[in-house]
Design brief:
Helices cover 66% and strands 0% of the residues. The protein contains 7 helices and no strands. The protein is globular and about 45 Å long. It has 140 residues and is mainly alpha-helical. The protein has one domain. Helix 5 packs antiparallel against helix 6.
């Protein structure tokens, strides 16, 4: 929450670095579509988790990249760029680490469906209400 608060305060004194083209907004929305299903798949063992390897890091990378494409202020680049670099570095190191057991939901053939449906519901909730409530930034 401290990161969100600091980011919100930094937005009061914006320092522009670049102006993203208007057509980047729909690209950002499209890149954000798999983010919430990937986040949920990180705790639900299934084919998505197996195929992606580390769905939470993939979600953070997509989230950060999408936001960098549509936000060009210094605070945006520091927050989203920093989190993108962290996620990439963590993903690279993930291949070299010894796997640790993680607590997650029990295996089920429904886990992928749950991740996708619940993730898309969460995506719509973020679009309609949660983004402005959490960040103070309207998407409309």
């Amino acid at each position: 929450m401290l990161l969100v608060r600091g980011y919100g305060l930094a937005r009061h004194s914006p320092v522009p670095l670049y102006v993203p083209p208007a057509w980047m907004r729909p690209v950002t929305m499209l890149l954000m579509l798999p983010v919430f299903p990937l986040l949920l798949a990180s705790s639900l063992p299934g084919r998505i988790r197996t195929a992606v390897g580390h769905p939470m890091l993939a979600a953070v990378m997509l989230w950060a990249l999408a936001h960098l494409l549509s936000n060009g202020m210094l605070a945006d680049v520091l927050l989203f760029g920093g989190l993108l670099l962290w996620a990439v570095a963590d993903r690279l190191s993930f291949r070299r680490r010894v796997a640790r057991p993680m607590q997650m939901a029990p295996p089920s053939r429904w886990n992928d469906l749950i991740a996708v449906v619940a993730g898309l519901v969460l995506y719509v909730a973020v679009l309609l209400w949660l983004h402005v409530w959490i960040t103070g930034v309207s998407l409309h």
